[in-house]
Amino acid sequence: MNCWLLILLLNMNEGTLPTQNWSSSTNLAKLVKIDVIDKNQLTSLIRNGIFIISDFDQTILAQCDQSGLEILKKLRINYTILDEILPNYDYYYVWALDEMASQNIPRFVTTIFVGDDYLICRIPQNIDIRLVQKYRIELKKINFVPIVSNLTIKEYPVVLYDSTVQTLVDRVSADSVLNFVQRLVNFQTRYSPTDSCRACANYIKEQFEAYGLDSVFVQEYNSIYAPNVIGIKRGISYPESIYLVLCGHFDCISGSPYTFAPGADDNGSGASGVLEAVRVMSGCDVDYTIRFIAFSGEEQGLLGSHYYASQARSHGDSIVGVINIDMVAYSLPGRDSASIIGKPENPNCAPLVDYFIACADTYTALKTQRQIIDRPRSDHASFNTFGYLAIHCRENLNVNNPYYHTIGDTIGGGFNNLEFCTEVIKASIATIASLAKPVLVGIEEKELPQPVFTVMPNPSQKLIKVKLMPGENKIKFYDITGKVIQLLSIHSNKTESVIDLTKMRPGIYFIEITNNKKQAKTKIVVN
Questions:
Q1: Rounded to the nearest 5°, which phi and psi values hold at 415?
Q2: Per-residue pLDDT tens for 361-379?
Q3: Read out DSSP for 231-282?
């Protein structure tokens, strides 16, 4: 046991370690830790309706009422009741990263379980979570929603060299990456509850729009925090709910988060990787849709990514894979390899880790470490919870960044290796591009002498007049999330065609028209 855990146990003020014989006179549901030995036991729990909320560290957390406890006894599965699930409290996994953090966990935090290198804690909802984050700790909120079990093993294609992917990778510029990081640091703080963080979200949105993504929108999930920012490059063959995700959180924290939290490494490096990917891929089409996402609320317990992933699952989205970039700019001499981290099972993310490493070897000079471990300490874990394959790309796990979560996480402090950061970004782009199957846009299409079509009036209420190029025109209407809501085929002889919009709700839509293998898009507002 780590010394900080021993110190914490000696100084716990409220919580006590529960035992198997724990009992209560109330009817509140219980938070239960279940020791699962193999997949058969996990399958049995799911089949018998146990409400599983977390699968981590070879243990299961479940929400059980009395009938659930009776099922566990009947199945002869070992379990421990950790706590009654109290109203007006939140539960978190907590990782204290040094002895000072472990000794200064506030009195109002109740520790209900001590793992090998983490705690499970109960925190009152009316407490400012910043008081818990004053020292170097990491949080993952435990959400009382059922996880989506995924025990299948996905197969990815063999990585074969593609000159188009190499062209995209070669476009990555260290100067561009550094400029993005500097711009993010210039916000002074990107702590999720601040106006400055919301301003940063607007900046990212503007960059996504400037680089020509097909749809760009913010996703509000909490009135206190800045929103997620989502940009969509729509695939030619798979434009709707089958897609890839490249993500990195843009929020950050320090000991003085409301005034100065530069977050250059954590996670200006990852957020800049997403921005750089949007920039270098702006001149290509892809078969599979890519969603570029900048999450907020990561430092408060993966809040933004949890909301996104839960919504994706409820909408039935099919996500091919998620590459999460978080902390990729700090190294030490001789320890400049990237750790590529994937969950060993439920879901088994090893195939995606292997695909990433193969792309890194094929297209970049990045050195990698294959880490098939359960480490739910960044936004990839939110996707894993809902059954999606998602991996975490980060600096070497054996390297401790001394500036992490401090005001010293600046360019030159916590961010000390631009070359390494650039190579990780190249490998991430290579992986996403390889899976999305890119096609570079030809010069002929860029130099069309006139627009392919015009739309009038815009904004519109009921009818629009569309002036098309001669020939067969295939028309798709998308909503802001990328969902196709209407398909048309119109043969035009340079006459105006009228399209009825009365069935569309007010909002922003995108029209995509394909004519003789040429494609153009525009935005329309329906009032």
A1: -100, 100
A2: 999 999 999 999 999 999 9
A3: EEE--SSEEEEEEEEEEEE-----SSTTT-B--IIIIIIHHHHHHHHHHHTT
